[in-house]
Design a protein that fits this description.
Elements lengths: L2 H14 L15 H11 L7 H14 L3 E5 L2 H11 L7 E5 L5 H8 L3 E5 L10 H11 E4 L2 E4 L5 E5 L11 H10 L3 E5 L7 E2 L2 E2 L6 E5 L12 E5 L2 H10 L4 E2 L6 E2 L10 H32 L5 E3 L6 E2 L5 E5 L7 H10 L5 E2 L19 H9 E4 L7
Parallel strand pairs: 2-3, 2-6, 6-7, 7-10
Antiparallel strand pairs: 1-11, 4-5, 5-6, 8-9, 8-15, 10-11, 12-13, 14-16, 16-18, 17-18
Length: about 375
């Protein structure tokens, strides 16, 4: 076993103990059973029911978004947001190469083209300075739209992702979208509870999207949400995600092609109970970060990722970065820690290395490639602190 792997195992054990531990598992100790049973007793377990309304209201209050539409997962939330933002067939959409594949998939569902951009080490998200210079070199403006001179396609939107819950530099990113006539849609799937300059992530763009998968800070089992401050777009999002069904006492009338994307009441009951515990989850996750910070303080050639100065992160997944000079040891660390029943994971495979996305446009990705070769997520459940 390498000394690096030994040091990392020792530091993790100092924080979480020596029992087997998962990367991130949900906690259920509030009213989850009570609300789910109440939902079952009501028989309203599908997309109609009071818990959907309650859950949306709680999310609106917590995030500050004027309107919230709960849907079946984060990918559906992003797909619908892209469509409502005017992303059309063959449009290009800028997104980080370092993210989960769902971001790219949602773009493809629209018939659009993912265009991969680089990240920065200080936030793990989109590098707005590098992106600005890149767009200067490849785009021109026509009739109020950003056109890729190389492909002749319209670049319609930018989708930054708040990686592992750490906010991107949104002020600079918003300046890029203004200067290049791009729509901003935030993929905040991982950042419920994260603030940028005091404002919740997912509320800066035309849309923001959340995920409540089983491994997120709170869970509905499977679920997501669309955030927006635009009343008309919110109304349309709710209509389209409810199969575009017109209200009628008995007739099945649909006025366009819609989507069966609304969150079931049963899932919302779980989410409503989880929202009651969210503040405690966030406090626990910050406490876990502080314990890891102390444990890794003297471990050489390893850095625990800390929130940027301008934000407050939810610390969804605790993240190690090993030095560039020993990046070839990453897989050894992953193997040894998992053999020791400590579930660790690397960053996602970069998008343009995945078979479905090999031939899509991309800027040079030096930082994203470096991060992908050095990054390790370590056990992060809120119950560990």
């Amino acid at each position: 076993m390498s000394s690096l792997a030994q040091n990392i195992i020792r530091a993790i054990h100092d924080v979480v103990g020596i029992e087997p531990v998962s990367l991130h598992e949900p906690r259920f100790y509030g009213n989850e059973t009570k609300y789910v049973q109440e939902c079952l007793d009501s028989t309203f377990v599908s997309s109609v029911g009071k818990f959907v309304d309650h859950f949306e209201e709680e999310l609106s209050t917590f995030t500050g978004a004027k309107y919230v539409i709960a849907v079946v997962n984060g990918t559906a939330a992003l797909h619908m947001s892209l469509l409502l933002a005017g992303v059309e067939n063959r449009d290009e959409v800028l997104m980080p190469a370092l993210t989960f594949v769902a971001t790219a998939n949602a773009i493809r569902y629209c018939g659009a083209v993912p265009h991969f951009v680089d990240s920065e080490e200080s936030t793990l998200g989109v590098d707005p300075c590098a992106l600005r210079e890149y767009l200067k070199s490849i785009t021109e403006q026509h009739s109020g739209f950003c056109i890729n001179r190389r492909t002749k396609r319209r670049i319609r939107a930018l989708v930054p992702v708040h990686i592992f819950g750490h906010p991107c530099r949104l002020e600079e990113i918003m300046a890029v979208t203004r200067d290049f006539n791009l729509v901003l849609i935030e993929d905040a799937a991982e950042s419920l509870g994260s603030l940028y300059q005091g404002q919740h992530t997912g509320t800066f763009g035309l849309f923001g999207t959340l995920s409540f998968n089983g491994n997120k800070t709170i869970t509905t089992g499977g679920g997501g949400a669309i955030l927006t401050d635009d009343a008309e777009l919110a109304k349309r999002a709710k209509h389209l995600t409810t199969t575009a069904k017109l209200q009628h006492r008995w007739e099945y009338l649909h006025d366009e092609v819609g989507f069966n994307y609304r969150l079931p009441n049963l899932n919302a009951a779980l989410g409503y109970a989880q929202m009651e515990c969210l503040s405690e989850f966030l406090t626990s996750k910050r406490r876990l970060f502080e314990r890891y910070r102390d444990a890794f303080r003297d471990v050489p050639q390893v850095r625990l990722f800390m929130e940027p100065d301008f934000c407050r992160s939810n610390y969804w997944l605790q993240t190690l970065l090993i030095d560039e000079s020993i990046s070839d040891q990453r897989d050894v660390v992953l193997e040894v820690t998992n053999d020791a029943d400590l579930m660790t994971r690397p960053a996602w495979t970069l998008m343009q290395r995945l078979e479905p996305y090999r031939d899509f446009p991309s800027m040079q990705l030096p930082v994203a490639k470096s991060l992908a070769s050095r990054l390790i997520n370590i056990p992060s459940s809120s119950g560990l602190a």
